[in-house]
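Second attempt. The first submission of acyl-CoA (8-3)-desaturase had a stray character pasted in from the spreadsheet, which I only caught after the job came back as garbage. Lesson logged: always re-copy from the clean sequence file. Corrected sequence (445 aa) follows.
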Amino acid sequence: TFTGRQKGMGVGGQQTEAADVFSWEEVQKHRSRNDRWLVISRKVYNISQWAKRHPGGSHVIGHYAGEDATEAFTAFHPDQKFVQKFLKPLLIGELAATEPSQDGNKNAAIIQDFETLRTQVEKDGLFKAKPLFFCLHLTHILLLEALAWMMVWYWGTSWTLTLLCAVMLATSQAQAGWLQHDFGHLSVFKKSKWNHLVHKFVIGHLKGAAASWWNHLHYNHHAKPNVLSKDPDVNMSGVFVLGSVQPVEYGMKKIKHMPYNHQHQYFFLLGPPLLVPVVFNLQNLNVMISRRNWVDLAWYLSFYIRYFSCYVPLYGVFGAVALNLFVRFLESHWFVWVTQMNHLPMNIDHEKNRDWVTMQLQATCNIEKSFFNDWFSGHLNFQIEHHLFPRMPRHNYHLVAPRVRALCDKHGISYQMKTLWRGMTDVVSSLKTSGDLWLDAYLHK
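This time the job returned cleanly.
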């Protein structure tokens, strides 16, 4: 093992004179909560202290402790030269010349071919956004909001008009959710600060949620999709068991927080109806208050001030609150089905240290392209391309998709494409399969 720490490490993990060289064995020893190293482009960095100050949160960078993080680093950071000034003080050495550039089960040929593809895609301008696309998308959201209010203001608050108003507001909320997702992934403006600013406006003022809450959860999901204990989207707090590994583990340990063999049935009561109006609201408030994120709280409150100013005069306080909850209830169904059909039926397992392409393809699938599917899902029917290129503007996913499929075919990686209906039914069938696995293990193992 090459270490040579005495030679090149200064105070706080800073590099001093000659660079130290390390083996992967040495790097992989540093993956605990308070001792974290990672590798980017063969350079070894000590992120133990920096992780707490990482803008994306300590978890997302900590997930790559003891690993090669080059592909994730490239995927998430648009201005890598700017980020280098933060990395430089953390540099403690590099991999020994005899060591491979990647660790674990990562496939060097796939990594090289994907880097070639990414470089070519960037040269072809597929990371450049079309401002008109996003302006029109924002316009149709604002138009739905305005028309919904004007309709009940002018024609009255009958049950029929109120229902139509709720559907229009739920549609605008769902579409604003896809739009904030674009800005959150830094895929609209060239400068990150403009993406962050508009992200706060869209998610805060138009949706009533916190940008910091979304960033920390969503980037963790992208960094390690469908990886148990790392992806928050598969952390079901014991309400559901997912995939083929977790149900057996729960069954063998005789864990029965819920009757999991019926989870495909109670999913309809606990999943789509409650996620947005209850779970997300509580999570948002907890994040903003516990972390004292007053900027996000101000944006959050601006949504409710605007909403109640518009609807309390028409419905009263109780009616306005009820309308808002009903809108969230409708939006929640939309959100859950779109987001879960791409991931829930796919492989869900513990960390396997796969390369970027293999990891993302095992955890994601696509839904067929159509005008409706693109609009309905915010182009997340191209979930594979989105996960491989999270900073790519969504209007370009269909252009890169044939190249991604060719890469997968070359390396024998499954590229799954489904109809919208099949994607939704697979959510239920996968929950039933996982529940049956749990019951079998609970009774017989």
